[in-house]
Amino acid sequence: MQRLFRAWEARLHNHYCAYSTDEDKLSNLPEDVELEDWKYLVKYFGSEKFKVISERNKNNREKQITKHSCGTRSFAKVEESTMKIHFSPITTYTCSCVFSLLNYIAERSTIGRKRLTR
């Protein structure tokens, strides 16, 4: 549900960015948004608070070296399922060990081979 909301909010922000002035933004209302809600969003997207948060998030994304590539499963769930399949349940493994294993598996999967050949 959160993924759908974030996609919807991103689509509204893209619609907001398509127009240069607030008058154009307000006159080009998205189909699935009420006028009062759109007025609030135009004000919010143009606020200094939103711009500061947006800029900070852009900078943080650029600093990321490793992107999350496990799909919707968390690293903890991947680690647990990997340990059940491949390892002794008595041994504990670090996140870097599990991450290395995931990369090893991904490189040998069909998707990983396609990614490496591009």
UniProtKB/TrEMBL annotation:
Top-level taxonomic group: Eukaryota
One Pfam match: Transposase_24
InterPro entries reported for this sequence: Probable_transposase_24 (IPR004252)
Matching PANTHER family: OS12G0282400 PROTEIN-RELATED, TRANSPOSASE TNP1_EN_SPM-LIKE DOMAIN-CONTAINING PROTEIN
Protein name, as recorded: Uncharacterized protein
